[in-house]
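Write out this protein's structure.
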Amino acid sequence: MLTGMLTGIRGRFVRTYALLVLLAILLTAGGVLAMVRHYYLTSIENLLEVQAGFAARLYREYFAGEDPGRAGQELAEVFAQGTPARVQVLDRAGNLAGDSQDPALREPPGAAPEVAPALRGQAGAATGRWPATSERYLAVAAPLQRGGETQGVVRLASSLAAVDRVTLTLGLALGLLGLGAVGVTVLTAGALANTVVRPVTEVTLAAERMARGDLAVRVPVRQRDEVGRLAATLNRMAEELSRLDRLKNEFVASVSHELRTPLTSIKGFAVTLREGLPADARELREGLEVIDREADRLAGLVEELLDFSRLQAGRLTLRCAPVRVDDLVRETVRQMRPRAGRLGIGLTAVIAPGVPPVDGDRDRLKQVLVNLLDNALKFTPAGGRVEVGVAPVAHGVRVTVADTGPGIPPEELPRVKERFFRGRAAREGTGLGLALAEELVKSHGGTLEIASDGRSGTQAAFFLPGKR
């Protein structure tokens, strides 16, 4: 478990938080210990300075006739009354003349750093260690003066053992508190990391399953944060991939069917011709017409697939030049009117005056218009009408193909421009026509819209920006 907590994202969380808390505790503990120690040392030093000053004043007022060198021990005992500090008296040469503690513990203090300024008439303070016990102490020295001249030095020293014990105890307490805080931090950071790592792990495992082809997998969205949005996005991607995979399968089946029908017709008449010419010239002509028509149909299917593939790969180039859209509409309607007549459908063009030219590839724009007209004629029953309109609009030209067919069901309307989509009423085709038309219009900087109330016809319109 510990290894798992120290690896990956969870490990980075735990290590980072633990390190931050540890640094904060070290800085805080160091600051607290320094302040406590400084407080105690300052308090002891102030107390010793007051007591040393009192001893110096007592000497000046009552014992100025005594030589510290000869009466040092008596002076030390007098000065030691009322203070727990160790009191030493030095002569004017810095030699120890009296000590309030056991003589066996006496050490020559003349070399102590606080003695030198006292011999010059100024108080001094310093810390050190007793040589005999290695115990730390704080000492304050004050001059013993008579008539403005220094006769000796009184030195008060206080053990710092209690201060060291307090500091050590406080340090241990802060250390234990710090260890507890680090432990709590590790557990908290681990729990916090789990809220991130667990959903990330779920997302990773789901993505791996998707990569292996399992598009049915979904990630539970546990929270409304970045990871939650990632999980939701992955779920939407899986749904979209599932939909595209389903459309792909439908498309393959559809294309297979679309290809099989003309190939069967061509194959049948080819076999008939190979086995012998029909006796009836009319039958021969009909057979050749079927082969020609189905070959054209195959070529159209293949060309549509190739165009869409080029568009998706960005390899479809446009040969742009000024195009008169009104002339293009007249020409296309004229060419498709015979087919409309055979189907018993009226096909008309309504062209408004003042249609401006556009920059575009004339053949590709005609391909869009033919596609829209083909759909209109395909779904309009005999006796119906198809009308193509072209008119100038703000900043461009709008072309509309409206029919009187049954319309598009509302549930299918949002999807009619999706690649490979075929509605329930579609009897043939790849499902790429409108998707290809929209891509071609977009490549010209325009937009394609399909509108229908699901009951009385469909209106397909595309906008093209005017020539710049």
